[in-house]
From TrEMBL:
Lineage, highest ranks first: Eukaryota, Metazoa, Spiralia, Lophotrochozoa, Mollusca
Subunit comment: Homodimer. Binds the thyroid hormone triiodothyronine (T3); T3 binding inhibits enzymatic activity.
Gene3D superfamilies to which the protein is assigned, alphabetical: NAD(P)-binding Rossmann-like Domain, ornithine cyclodeaminase, domain 1
Organism annotation: Magallana gigas (Pacific oyster)
Domain of life from the UniProt record: Eukaryota
Protein name, per record: Ketimine reductase mu-crystallin
InterPro entries to which the protein is assigned, alphabetical: NAD(P)-bd_dom_sf, ODC_Mu_crystall, ODC_N
GO molecular function, one term: hormone binding
Amino acid sequence: MDIKFIPAEDVKRVLHFSELIPQMESALKKFSSKNVEQPVRSIVSVKEANGFLGVMPAYSSTDQALAVKLVTFYPQNTDVPTHNAIIAVFNSHNGIPEVIMDGEVITTMRTAAVSAVATKYLAAGDASTLAVLGSGVQARSHIQALSSIRSFKKINIWSRTKKNAEKLAGEVGGTAYDSVQEAVKDADVIVTVTSSSTPVLMKDWVKPGTHVNAVGACRPDWQEIDPDLMRSSVLYVDSREAAMKESGDVILSKADIFAELGEMVLGVKEAEVQKTTVFKSLGLAIEDVMSAKLVQQLMKMN
Ligand SMILES: NC(=O)C1=CN([C@@H]2O[C@H](COP(=O)(O)OP(=O)(O)OC[C@H]3O[C@@H](n4cnc5c(N)ncnc54)[C@H](O)[C@@H]3O)[C@@H](O)[C@H]2O)C=CC1
Ligand SMILES: O=C(O)C1=NCCCC1
């Protein structure tokens, strides 16, 4: 067996949001039109380390794409990244393993690319203020991805540790805030990218008509969003089945899911731009599989 390895630096070199965002839009459509075989991911808890291992397989017959991502998330890591992953790609005709590639860069970029798809459809066309809660890997990636689809005049950042918010604000020409309330009060688009397991964003702080990308809290007993905000917003998810199994924000609030993002992109469900909208992101294996396919195609060209 001759299995090729694609390291993080190669993935980073070839992958750009200009190609990844349309690829994710296409993956979401395929997922919601049931053209993808994908179980809800399995999660193994590593209690002693407060860590988790996720196993995320998917197959798209139309793309002849078969792969699995193995991802760990150890929110308490400090000297190494909190999220680590590899993706194994198989030949869908004969099952032979072909490639193993880094999955960390793909996880970082495809998550933000999916939020960019949500924002493209659900945020006001003239959205000018972006608020980001959290200052880690996803915060940076989201600022880059979302800035490619809207022209933000202001980027407001709140983080638990003010100096981290200030550092990120310095990097992106934004402003660091002491409180979430101050950071989000004028925001047209809000991104929550924290490892919090309790709500950080309250309904009363959010301007009507704002679009929220809720990216953290991927466990059934974790929340990042005030349940009142979940219930009073038009709620989009990446996968209904996963949201009902994995998302504390959805399960504990008992909020009604209006649509999968893919259903909205397909035009089966409305994009409720005028209303307050929440996109609850959990991450789908097909996003990783189609990102890995894109990386392989781009590597052949570069
Ligand atoms: N929906 C999806 O597809 C994906 C979701 N995620 C989730 O996105 C979130 C951010 O991920 P990364 O940026 O990669 O992690 P990171 O470790 O780089 O950053 C985490 C951020 O959360 C903050 N934080 C930690 N505990 C907090 C608390 N109790 N209250 C407020 N802030 C807190 C940290 O200070 C830091 O700013 C995580 O919840 C992660 O699991 C990550 C990858 C994919
Ligand atoms: O989709 C992913 O990849 C992840 N989602 C939730 C947090 C861990 C990684």
